[in-house]
Each structure stands twice: as structure tokens, then as C-alpha cells.
Specification:
This protein has 6 helices and no strands. With 188 residues, the protein is mainly α.
Length: 188
């Protein structure tokens, strides 16, 4: 049963590991390890519990299929919602934590949530501003060329893609909106 106060199985002793694995611990002589003596002198924490008081479970709350129950305390501030919630719930209900499909679906749910948040922002009095939110305006003040070249940065390989990934969806949205407005004018 997960989430119990029971102490997990202790690691095998150094002698057991030396018997099982030839050459194990040749460089780990306890006398030469600074933290060795400190492990035996840990104070008693005073923690006494068998199982913490459980928060009321919400059957709609997502959990991994590997666990039989939710942890005793869990967050409820951001419940799943909309299309992104459907995608995320599918990932939690169907795939193990060890499957890449699960994580890719969770990333997809995150991207769907980001797109819908951007779309919702246009219905407010302060819509998202793609220029300032991407940091383009602060780039010239922080040595943009010197900070990239001659420092062995790995991200230079895909740096040319960054403007396309960041600005591309905004440009496509503006182009689609302009095309829709133009079609509406022609039909009148």
C-alpha cells in the first residue's frame, strides 16, 4: 500500500554488497567519508504517526494507475477543465507513468490549455501582447550576440526556430483573422 509511515526496506549493508559485487566500494572507505559519522548522530524528529489524516477524496481527481489511492493531501486549486482536461484525464486513466505516450499527452494538454488561455485573453480588456511577453523588447539590453556565441551554448542549433515557434502561431492567427474579415467584406 503506498503512502504509509512504514520505513522502506533498508539498502543492503556494505559487507553484503562487497560479497555480491566484486570490487564494490573500493573507494568508499567509511573513515574517509565526511558524512559517515553524522548519519549515526541524527536527532529524533518526534514524528509519530501511522497514517496521516486523509483529505476528502474527489473521484474526479486524477491519479496514476500505479497507485491504489491518492496521497493523504493533494492539491485542488487547478482542476482539469475543457479539452485539455479531457486529454490529461485520458493520459492519467490509460497510461502508466513509464510510458512516453502519457507524458506526450500531458504536454499536449498543456499546449491546448495555453492556446485556449491566449484565445480567452482576447475577450478581456487586456489581451496578451506577444511582443513583450516573449522578451523580445528586453533582448537588446542583455548583450544578445555576445551571450550566444563563443560560449559553447547547445541551444544555438535550434535558435533559428525560436522566432518561428513563438511568433508563428500569432502570425497565423492574425492572417486567418484578416482573411476572415476580407471574406466578410467581399460577401457584403
Amino acid at each position: 500500500m503506498p503512502y504509509t509511515a512504514d520505513r522502506p526496506g533498508l539498502a543492503p549493508s556494505a559487507d553484503e554488497l562487497r560479497e555480491r559485487i566484486p570490487g564494490w566500494g573500493a573507494d568508499l572507505d567509511p573513515e574517509h567519508r565526511r558524512t559517515w559519522d553524522q548519519r549515526d548522530d541524527l536527532p529524533d524528529t518526534g514524528a509519530r504517526w501511522t497514517f496521516p489524516e486523509r483529505q476528502d477524496e474527489d473521484p474526479r481527481r486524477e491519479k496514476s494507475i500505479e497507485h491504489s489511492m491518492l496521497p493523504p493531501v493533494f492539491g485542488t486549486a487547478q482542476p482539469l477543465h475543457g479539452v485539455s482536461g479531457v486529454v490529461r484525464r485520458f493520459a492519467y486513466d490509460r497510461f502508466s507513468e513509464t510510458k512516453n505516450t502519457r507524458w506526450l499527452l500531458l504536454v499536449l494538454g498543456d499546449r491546448i490549455d495555453a492556446v485556449t488561455a491566449h484565445a480567452r485573453s482576447f475577450l478581456t480588456t487586456r489581451p496578451d501582447d506577444p511582443v513583450t511577453l516573449t522578451g523580445v523588447t528586453s533582448e537588446p539590453r542583455h548583450r544578445p550576440i555576445a551571450s550566444r556565441f563563443g560560449r559553447g551554448r547547445r541551444d544555438l542549433r535550434h535558435a533559428w526556430l525560436d522566432p518561428i515557434i513563438v511568433a508563428g502561431p500569432w502570425i497565423l492567427t492574425v492572417a486567418a483573422a484578416a482573411a476572415a474579415v476580407q471574406r466578410a467584406r467581399r460577401s457584403r
